[in-house]
Amino acid sequence: MTMPAVLDPDSLVIRSLPECRAAAEERFNLASWPTRNDQEWRFADLRRNSVDGFAASAVLSTGRQGPWDAVEILDLDTALLRHGERFGPAIEESLGSLGAARHLAWGLKSENFRGECWVIGEDQRLDVPLQLDVRAAGPGHAAWLSLVLVRRGASAVIWEHLSSAVGDAVYLVNGTVVVVEEGAEVKLVGSQELSASSKLVNCVHVIPGANAKVRDVRVNLGAEWVRQEVSASLGAKGADCELFGLSLAGAGEEIDQRTLQAHVSGGIHSNLLYKNALFADARSIFSGLIRVDSGAHQTDAFQSCRNLLLSEEAEANAMPGLEINADQVRCSHGSTCGQIDPEEVFYLRARGIPEAAARHLVTLGFANEIIGRIGNDSVEERLSARVEARLLALRDQKV
Amino acid sequence: MLFSFGMDCLEIKDLTVAIHGQRILDGLSLVVPKGEVHAIMGPNGSGKSTLAKVLAGHQDYEVVSGQVLMDGQDLLAMEVDERSRAGFFLAFQYPYEIPGVSNANFLREAVRARLGSGEEIDAVSFYKRLYGLMDELGIDRKFTGRSVNEGFSGGEKKRNEILQMAVLEPVYAVLDETDSGLDIDALRVVAEGVNRMRSPHRGFLLITHYQRLLNYIEPDFIHVLAGGKIVRTGGKELALELEETGYDWIKEGALATA
Question: Could you tell me if A183 and A154 are in contact, meaning their C-beta atoms sit under 8 angstroms apart?
Answer without folding.
Answer: no
